[in-house]
Design a protein that fits this description.
With 234 residues, this protein is α+β, with helices and mostly antiparallel strands. Among the domains are: 51 residues, no CATH class; 39 residues, no CATH class. The chain is 39% helix and 10% strand. It has six helices and six strands. The radius of gyration is 53 Å and the shape is elongated. The termini are far apart. GO terms for molecular function: nucleic acid binding; zinc ion binding. One of its GO terms (cellular component) is spliceosomal complex. Pfam families: zf-met.
Length: 234
Protein backbone atom coordinates (compact mmCIF):
# COMPACT_ATOMS: atom_id res chain seq x y z
CA UNK A 1 0.00 0.00 0.00
CA UNK A 2 0.99 3.62 -0.47
CA UNK A 3 0.71 6.32 2.15
CA UNK A 4 -1.28 9.21 0.66
CA UNK A 5 0.56 11.66 2.86
CA UNK A 6 4.02 10.30 2.16
CA UNK A 7 3.96 8.27 -1.10
CA UNK A 8 7.65 7.43 -0.95
CA UNK A 9 7.44 6.00 2.62
CA UNK A 10 7.75 2.22 2.86
CA UNK A 11 6.95 1.01 6.44
CA UNK A 12 8.49 -2.12 7.92
CA UNK A 13 6.63 -4.96 9.60
CA UNK A 14 4.67 -3.97 12.75
CA UNK A 15 6.91 -5.97 15.12
CA UNK A 16 9.95 -4.09 13.81
CA UNK A 17 8.52 -0.59 14.06
CA UNK A 18 10.21 1.86 16.43
CA UNK A 19 8.67 2.43 19.87
CA UNK A 20 7.02 5.85 19.30
CA UNK A 21 4.99 4.61 16.29
CA UNK A 22 1.94 2.37 16.09
CA UNK A 23 -0.83 1.46 13.62
CA UNK A 24 -4.32 2.81 14.12
CA UNK A 25 -7.15 1.64 11.93
CA UNK A 26 -9.76 4.19 10.87
CA UNK A 27 -13.33 3.68 9.65
CA UNK A 28 -12.20 2.62 6.12
CA UNK A 29 -9.63 0.21 7.59
CA UNK A 30 -6.82 2.14 5.98
CA UNK A 31 -3.65 1.89 8.11
CA UNK A 32 -2.16 5.18 9.08
CA UNK A 33 1.24 5.47 10.73
CA UNK A 34 1.08 8.02 13.53
CA UNK A 35 3.20 8.93 16.55
CA UNK A 36 1.73 7.81 19.93
CA UNK A 37 3.52 10.62 21.75
CA UNK A 38 2.33 13.54 19.68
CA UNK A 39 -0.96 12.73 17.95
CA UNK A 40 -2.91 10.77 20.59
CA UNK A 41 -4.79 13.92 21.60
CA UNK A 42 -5.39 14.78 17.95
CA UNK A 43 -6.79 11.33 17.20
CA UNK A 44 -9.05 11.50 20.24
CA UNK A 45 -10.54 14.75 18.97
CA UNK A 46 -11.03 13.16 15.56
CA UNK A 47 -12.78 10.19 17.23
CA UNK A 48 -10.20 7.82 15.80
CA UNK A 49 -9.54 6.44 19.32
CA UNK A 50 -12.59 5.70 21.51
CA UNK A 51 -12.59 7.69 24.75
CA UNK A 52 -13.75 6.44 28.17
CA UNK A 53 -16.68 8.06 29.93
CA UNK A 54 -15.56 10.86 32.23
CA UNK A 55 -15.98 10.23 35.96
CA UNK A 56 -16.76 13.15 38.29
CA UNK A 57 -19.36 15.05 40.25
CA UNK A 58 -21.67 17.48 38.60
CA UNK A 59 -21.86 20.43 40.96
CA UNK A 60 -23.06 23.02 38.52
CA UNK A 61 -26.66 22.94 39.77
CA UNK A 62 -28.13 24.54 42.88
CA UNK A 63 -28.40 22.15 45.80
CA UNK A 64 -31.87 21.50 47.14
CA UNK A 65 -32.64 20.28 50.68
CA UNK A 66 -35.31 17.81 51.61
CA UNK A 67 -36.91 19.54 54.59
CA UNK A 68 -39.12 16.63 55.60
CA UNK A 69 -36.16 14.26 55.79
CA UNK A 70 -34.10 16.59 57.98
CA UNK A 71 -37.07 17.36 60.23
CA UNK A 72 -37.47 13.63 60.81
CA UNK A 73 -33.76 13.33 61.64
CA UNK A 74 -34.02 16.18 64.16
CA UNK A 75 -37.03 14.55 65.86
CA UNK A 76 -35.19 11.23 66.14
CA UNK A 77 -32.10 12.94 67.60
CA UNK A 78 -34.18 14.79 70.22
CA UNK A 79 -35.97 11.58 71.14
CA UNK A 80 -32.67 9.72 71.52
CA UNK A 81 -31.17 12.47 73.71
CA UNK A 82 -34.23 12.45 75.94
CA UNK A 83 -34.05 8.68 76.36
CA UNK A 84 -30.35 8.85 77.24
CA UNK A 85 -31.01 11.59 79.78
CA UNK A 86 -33.65 9.50 81.58
CA UNK A 87 -31.68 6.25 81.26
CA UNK A 88 -28.63 7.62 83.08
CA UNK A 89 -28.42 6.61 86.69
CA UNK A 90 -28.97 9.28 89.25
CA UNK A 91 -25.74 10.62 90.71
CA UNK A 92 -24.89 9.48 94.20
CA UNK A 93 -25.14 12.15 96.89
CA UNK A 94 -21.83 13.69 97.97
CA UNK A 95 -20.03 12.01 100.84
CA UNK A 96 -20.45 13.91 104.09
CA UNK A 97 -17.26 13.48 106.11
CA UNK A 98 -16.86 14.40 109.74
CA UNK A 99 -15.04 17.61 110.66
CA UNK A 100 -11.40 17.47 111.68
CA UNK A 101 -10.72 16.44 115.28
CA UNK A 102 -7.62 16.42 117.45
CA UNK A 103 -5.86 13.14 118.20
CA UNK A 104 -6.63 11.23 121.35
CA UNK A 105 -3.25 9.44 121.28
CA UNK A 106 0.41 10.44 121.28
CA UNK A 107 2.42 10.03 118.09
CA UNK A 108 5.39 7.75 118.74
CA UNK A 109 8.47 9.08 116.93
CA UNK A 110 11.38 8.22 119.25
CA UNK A 111 10.72 4.66 120.47
CA UNK A 112 13.06 3.12 117.88
CA UNK A 113 15.59 5.94 117.87
CA UNK A 114 19.20 4.66 117.92
CA UNK A 115 18.20 1.01 117.46
CA UNK A 116 19.44 -1.41 114.82
CA UNK A 117 17.05 -3.59 112.85
CA UNK A 118 17.72 -6.21 110.16
CA UNK A 119 15.50 -5.57 107.14
CA UNK A 120 14.92 -7.98 104.23
CA UNK A 121 13.37 -7.05 100.89
CA UNK A 122 10.65 -9.70 101.28
CA UNK A 123 9.59 -8.48 104.71
CA UNK A 124 6.11 -6.94 105.04
CA UNK A 125 5.76 -3.18 105.09
CA UNK A 126 5.13 -3.08 108.83
CA UNK A 127 8.57 -4.65 109.46
CA UNK A 128 10.61 -2.47 107.11
CA UNK A 129 12.74 0.51 108.02
CA UNK A 130 10.84 3.73 108.56
CA UNK A 131 7.47 4.79 109.93
CA UNK A 132 4.58 2.54 108.92
CA UNK A 133 1.04 3.92 108.52
CA UNK A 134 -1.50 1.15 109.08
CA UNK A 135 -4.37 3.28 107.75
CA UNK A 136 -2.84 4.00 104.33
CA UNK A 137 -0.55 0.91 104.31
CA UNK A 138 2.60 2.81 103.38
CA UNK A 139 6.09 3.38 104.81
CA UNK A 140 7.62 6.83 105.29
CA UNK A 141 11.39 7.07 105.71
CA UNK A 142 11.73 9.96 108.19
CA UNK A 143 9.74 11.57 110.98
CA UNK A 144 9.17 14.92 109.22
CA UNK A 145 7.50 13.28 106.22
CA UNK A 146 5.56 10.97 108.54
CA UNK A 147 4.06 13.96 110.36
CA UNK A 148 3.22 15.58 107.03
CA UNK A 149 1.53 12.36 105.95
CA UNK A 150 -0.67 11.86 109.03
CA UNK A 151 -1.67 15.53 108.91
CA UNK A 152 -2.37 15.44 105.17
CA UNK A 153 -5.62 15.25 103.25
CA UNK A 154 -5.19 11.66 102.04
CA UNK A 155 -4.72 10.24 105.56
CA UNK A 156 -7.61 12.25 107.00
CA UNK A 157 -9.94 11.11 104.23
CA UNK A 158 -9.00 7.50 104.95
CA UNK A 159 -10.03 8.15 108.57
CA UNK A 160 -13.38 9.52 107.37
CA UNK A 161 -12.67 13.17 108.16
CA UNK A 162 -12.45 16.27 106.04
CA UNK A 163 -9.94 19.11 106.41
CA UNK A 164 -12.61 21.48 107.72
CA UNK A 165 -12.59 22.38 111.42
CA UNK A 166 -15.85 22.59 113.32
CA UNK A 167 -16.58 26.00 114.78
CA UNK A 168 -16.47 25.78 118.59
CA UNK A 169 -19.25 27.21 120.70
CA UNK A 170 -18.82 29.33 123.83
CA UNK A 171 -19.60 26.40 126.11
CA UNK A 172 -16.96 24.21 124.45
CA UNK A 173 -14.32 26.93 124.90
CA UNK A 174 -15.18 27.30 128.60
CA UNK A 175 -14.99 23.54 129.13
CA UNK A 176 -11.61 23.47 127.43
CA UNK A 177 -10.28 26.19 129.72
CA UNK A 178 -11.45 24.23 132.77
CA UNK A 179 -9.65 21.10 131.57
CA UNK A 180 -6.41 23.03 131.03
CA UNK A 181 -6.65 24.61 134.50
CA UNK A 182 -7.03 21.21 136.14
CA UNK A 183 -4.12 19.83 134.17
CA UNK A 184 -1.92 22.75 135.19
CA UNK A 185 -2.89 22.38 138.85
CA UNK A 186 -2.01 18.68 138.96
CA UNK A 187 1.32 19.24 137.21
CA UNK A 188 2.42 22.27 139.25
CA UNK A 189 6.18 22.70 139.13
CA UNK A 190 8.19 24.49 141.84
CA UNK A 191 11.84 25.48 142.26
CA UNK A 192 12.32 22.80 144.90
CA UNK A 193 11.25 20.16 142.40
CA UNK A 194 13.87 21.48 139.99
CA UNK A 195 16.66 21.16 142.60
CA UNK A 196 15.59 17.63 143.45
CA UNK A 197 15.56 16.65 139.79
CA UNK A 198 19.07 18.07 139.23
CA UNK A 199 20.40 16.25 142.31
CA UNK A 200 18.84 13.00 141.18
CA UNK A 201 20.39 13.35 137.73
CA UNK A 202 23.84 13.98 139.24
CA UNK A 203 23.56 10.87 141.42
CA UNK A 204 22.60 8.77 138.41
CA UNK A 205 25.56 10.10 136.44
CA UNK A 206 27.94 9.31 139.32
CA UNK A 207 26.56 5.78 139.55
CA UNK A 208 27.16 5.21 135.83
CA UNK A 209 30.77 6.39 136.15
CA UNK A 210 31.36 4.03 139.08
CA UNK A 211 30.01 1.09 137.10
CA UNK A 212 32.30 1.91 134.16
CA UNK A 213 35.36 2.00 136.47
CA UNK A 214 34.47 -1.40 137.93
CA UNK A 215 34.10 -2.90 134.48
CA UNK A 216 37.57 -1.65 133.50
CA UNK A 217 39.08 -3.22 136.64
CA UNK A 218 37.41 -6.56 135.95
CA UNK A 219 38.76 -6.49 132.41
CA UNK A 220 42.33 -5.90 133.66
CA UNK A 221 42.08 -8.76 136.18
CA UNK A 222 40.86 -11.12 133.45
CA UNK A 223 43.86 -10.26 131.25
CA UNK A 224 46.74 -10.12 133.83
CA UNK A 225 45.46 -12.58 136.43
CA UNK A 226 44.76 -11.98 140.10
CA UNK A 227 47.89 -9.82 140.53
CA UNK A 228 47.64 -6.84 138.29
CA UNK A 229 50.83 -5.05 137.30
CA UNK A 230 51.19 -1.90 139.35
CA UNK A 231 52.30 1.20 137.48
CA UNK A 232 55.89 2.22 138.32
CA UNK A 233 56.62 5.88 138.77
CA UNK A 234 60.01 7.03 137.45
Amino acid sequence: WVDPVRPNFRPQFPDRLPAPFRFVSIAKARPVLVSSRVSARTLRHRRLVPTEKAVGVDNTYRKKWNREEFLERAREREKQEEEERFSHKAKAPPIQRKPLKHRDYEVDLSSRLGKTQVVTPIAPLSQQAGYYCAVCECVVKDSANYLDHINGKKHQRALGMSMRVERASLQQVQERFEILKKRKATSSFTEQDLDERILKQQNEEEERRRQRREKKKEKKFSVFGSFPIEPVSL
